[in-house]
Specification:
alpha+beta, BirA Bifunctional Protein, domain 2, 13 helices, binds adenosine-5'-triphosphate, 28% strand, six-stranded mixed β-sheet, 29% helix, Rossmann fold
């Protein structure tokens, strides 16, 4: 379905996924706070990426480099000179605009006259140490990649990895973006998940194509509809100065096709620059061929926040339900903030002790919520809206047969299983087994929805 961004923003606020930063002071634009459910979603995205890209591969290692780095890093990388957008300032209202956002040289806000474009650096500047002087200037990193390049030799020396291999990192990045908006799509503080995959130069193209596929598949496996993804090649004129080839994985966001992740063949630009500026040898000796060379690097660079937005948009659904509309997030179980909800049929005092016992069992294995407020129907709806794949209901019959009902979010179908089988059954269902597959000892199948 076509998702309305305002509805999604409102759901995110209402249910505790995402809040405006510093909201009680009027908000800080393009900065967002992740609430109790948002933080779980974000952690799950990062966890899925780390698992798929690092833990399950033997050609990748992780890194966590510091946000603050030597200023020389940004001089070598070209960011201090080149990480900028041309801006025009309105002579009347003093608002600044990206040249591409203006028409006929007039201010889009008040129609005033604009200055000639001037370059505006997107890096946040701050001072290192107590003295606020030019010599103490450093930057908040606008990407995590440079932390990887400057540690290339450290990793080669310690990780016992042979080419081809990659270094992966997740961390905060900061960009003083000019054009913001579209919720968490473009923020001034955000998180990145970046890989620098080092290869022999003559294999770079092959690996570039490999990563284009691999990264699209990662989104698809986590539930993104294939139809909503496409590749967009950067033309010669759009290529960054270092890139030999670059594709964006685009997603069909509510505002149209936009970049979700960038994948670039950066050649040997970064290692060569850092070798030149630092005076350190950043070449690699290939013991098999006896050659020494500077590796090429393929960079799949993704944003956690942008991925979160894509997963939320893709999962959002509405369907008619009696006289109302059922809103649900069809999130992949790996991403869902809450995996299981335990819901006693009512607050009846004979039910609650058993429901609490079931909760105690389930929460040891999965992120679980216990909820006994309001009617069972409303509680199901609430769990649908936050994307909880399964709800477990304890009813009066449970007291007699020691069995509970598992209700599936997407189909609203239910099965009944003995409490002794509950966690094993949930584990199977959460890993993709159809609900209809009854566990041994499963007592009966119920078709009704709740
Ligand atoms: P855009 O042109 O959309 O601002 P970019 O081309 O500058 O993006 P890259 O430098 O390629 O982005 O960054 C890699 C990834 O990091 C992007 O694909 C995106 O997912 C994420 N990203 C970049 N800038 C932001 C931002 N300001 N807010 C949120 N995510 C971002």
């Amino acid at each position: 379905m076509k998702v309305d961004m305002d509805k999604l923003v409102s759901l995110c606020k209402r249910r505790g996924f995402i809040f405006q930063s510093s909201e009680i002071y009027g908000g800080l634009s393009a900065c967002w706070d992740y609430g109790p459910l948002g933080v779980e979603l974000k952690r799950n995205i990062k966890e899925a990426w780390w698992r798929g890209m690092v833990r399950e591969r033997d050609d990748m290692v992780g890194l966590d480099s510091s946000v603050l780095m030597h200023r020389a890093v940004w001089i070598a990388s070209g960011h201090e000179q080149g990480f900028s957008d041309p801006l025009m300032e309105c002579k009347a209202c003093h608002q600044r605009w990206r040249a591409d956002d203006t028409k006929d040289g007039r201010c889009p806000n008040c129609g005033g006259e604009l200055t000639e474009p001037r370059m505006f650096n997107l890096m946040f500047k701050t001072f290192f140490g107590p003295v606020e002087e030019e010599a103490a200037t450093i930057y908040l990193r606008p990407e995590t990649a440079q932390g990887i390049f400057v540690n290339f030799a450290n990793v080669v020396d310690t990780a016992r990895k042979k080419l081809p291999f990659g270094i992966a990192q997740i961390g905060k990045a900061f960009r003083n973006e000019i054009t913001t908006g579209n919720f968490i799509f473009r923020c001034r503080e955000f998180e990145m998940m970046e890989i620098e995959f080092f290869v022999k130069p003559d294999t770079a193209e092959e690996w570039f194509n490999y990563w284009l596929e691999e990264r699209q598949n990662w989104y698809i496996k986590l539930g993104i509809n294939k139809e909503n993804l496409r590749l967009q090649q950067h033309g010669e004129d759009e290529l960054a100065h270092y890139a030999r080839a670059c594709y964006d994985i685009q997603y069909l966001f509510p505002m149209g096709w936009s970049e979700l992740e960038g994948i670039a063949n950066r050649g040997d630009f970064d290692l060569a620059q850092h070798a030149k500026h630092s005076g350190k040898d950043l070449s690699y000796f290939d013991a098999d061929s006896g050659e020494r060379f500077v590796p090429y690097v393929i960079e799949p660079s993704a944003g956690v926040d942008r991925a979160a937005l894509a997963f939320l948009v893709d999962a959002y659904d509405e369907e008619p339900d009696k006289n109302e509309i059922r809103v649900l997030l069809r999130l992949h179980p790996d991403l869902a903030p809450v995996k299981v909800a335990v819901l006693p049929l009512s607050r009846n005092e004979t039910l609650v002790p058993m429901a609490r016992d079931v909760y105690a069992i389930v929460r040891k294995c999965f992120a679980t919520q216990y909820d006994d407020a309001q009617s069972i129907g409303r509680r199901y709806r609430r769990q649908d809206e936050i994307g909880t794949p399964y709800s477990v209901t304890v009813d009066f019959q449970s007291l007699e047969d020691n069995a509970v009902t598992i209700r599936e979010r997407d189909s609203m179908k239910q099965i009944r299983v003995p409490v002794a089988e509950l966690t094993r059954t949930l584990e199977l269902k959460l890993s993709g087994e159809p609900l209809e597959v009854l566990p041994p000892g499963g007592k009966y199948w119920l078709g009704f929805e709740g």
